[in-house]
Amino acid sequence: MVKKIIPRHVGFIPDGNRRWAVSQGLRKEAGYAHGVNPGLLLLERCREYGISEVSIYGFTQDNTRRVTVQTNAFREACVKFAFEVARRGAALLVVGDETSVQFPDALKEFRQRRGSGMKVNFLVNYGWEWDLAGLGCGCLRSSDVSRMDLIVRWGGGRRLSGFLPVQSVYADFYIRDEYWPDFDIKHLDKALDWYNKQDRTLGG
C-alpha cells in the first residue's frame, strides 16, 4: 500500500460566507458567524492528521471597504475564532496590519506567536502589499510563515486573492464549490487525496 503523503503546511481560503447567508434567507453579514465552527472543526482535523502548520484567511484590507455592518461582523467572528484557537492549544500568530483601526485591538497580543503545538497563522486585515512592503526593512512582514504545500479554497473562486504571495509560490491549489459555512470534513479528505496525486517537483 502506498503511504499517504501529508503536506506540512496547508493554506485555507474560506470564501462564500455572504453568498451562503443570502441562500439561507439571512442578511449577508450573518454568514460570518456561521464560519467560525467550521474553521475550528477544520483545524482539529488538521491536527489529527499531523499537519504541522496551517494558514487561514480571516479578512483582507480590501474586505474592509465593505459596509460597516459587515466589517463589524467579520471582525467579531475573527476575534471569537482566534481566542478559541488559542484556548485549544495551537501556536497562534495573527498576521496583518495592526496599526490600522480595522485591526481588532483584542488580537494585537497575537502579533507575536503565542502557544505551542500546531502552528496556526491567521490572516487578519492582511494585504499582500503591506506584507511585501516589509522587504524595505529587510524581511517580509509574514516572515514567520513558511512556504505552503497546498492551498484549499471554498466558494468556487479560482484565484488566490492576495493570499501570502511568497509562501504560495509552489503550492498546489484545490477548489471546492461549496460555500464555506457548508464545510464538511470530507472536503479536507478529498483535498489531501488530490494532493497525493500531484507531481510535486517544485520546478525541478
How would you describe the overall organization of this protein?
Helices cover 28% and strands 17% of the residues. Helix 2 runs parallel beside helix 3 (68-87). The protein starts with 8 loop residues before the first strand and ends in a 9-residue tail after the last helix. The chain has a six-stranded parallel β-sheet. It has one domain (9-194): Decaprenyl diphosphate synthase-like (Undecaprenyl pyrophosphate synthetase, 3-Layer(aba) Sandwich), CATH 3.40.1180. It is built from five helices and six strands, in the order E-H-H-E-H-E-E-H-E-E-H. It is globular. The chain has 204 residues and is of the alpha/beta class. It has helices spanning 17-23, 36-49, 68-87, 128-133, 185-195, and strands spanning 9-13, 53-60, 91-95, 119-126, 150-153, 172-175. Belongs to the UPP synthase family. Z-FPP synthase subfamily. This is Di-trans-poly-cis-decaprenylcistransferase. Pfam families: Prenyltransf (PF01255).
CATH topology: Undecaprenyl pyrophosphate synthetase
Count up the domains: 1
Strand content: 15-25%
Topology as H/E string? Answer: EHHEHEEHEEH
CATH class: Alpha Beta
Mean pLDDT: 95
Quick one: biggest sheet?
Answer: 6 strands, parallel
Q: Any idea what the CATH architecture is?
A: 3-Layer(aba) Sandwich
Query: For the CA atoms, what is the radius of gyration?
Result: 16 Å
Low-confidence stretches: none
Global geometry: globular
Instruction: Output the number of helix runs.
Output: 5
Q: Given the helix and strand composition, which structural class is it?
A: alpha/beta
Instruction: Give the strand order, joined by hyphens, for the main sheet.
Output: 3-4-2-1-5-6
Note the gap between the termini. Answer: 27 Å
CATH superfamily: Decaprenyl diphosphate synthase-like
Topology, number of strands:
6
What is the share of helical residues? 25-40%
